[in-house]
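Bumping with the actual sequence this time:
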Amino acid sequence: MLEDVGFEVITFRPSKTTSLREAYKLIKSSHGMIGVHGAALTQLLFLRPGSVLVQIVPVGLGWVSKTCFETPAKAMKLDYTEYQVNVEESSLIEKYSRDDLVLKDPIAYRGMDWNVTKMKVYLKDQDVRLDVNRFRKHMNEAYKKAKSFMDLNG
């Protein structure tokens, strides 16, 4: 689907054996990066100012995604955008009812106590299955930004 939008897609799955040089070389030459909220997005440090960063934000992770990636990306002058996963795109819908605070109001569920149990729900127990049509609309906009960056910076 991303190729259909216009992106040249290179899948990068860093592992414990991925060299920093390899990551730097690939990402520094890229015009953008798309990823689900997680540690691998720290590779954003290698993007050039003006590059596009799309963070896919799972249910319940709005505040942590902002703190970990949105704020630093904007400080680095990246063109940051995010795709907010809705309840239907989250595997949590299979474990919790729609009326459960986990899904209905993650902020209320979390309260002031972001403990290991609550972190596990949103960070470990959750997978995402994106609505391709909804995601495509978002990616069309991201591609326009990336194309503009490519045209200016090669």
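The tokens above came from a reply further down the thread. Residues 2-90+131-153 form one domain.
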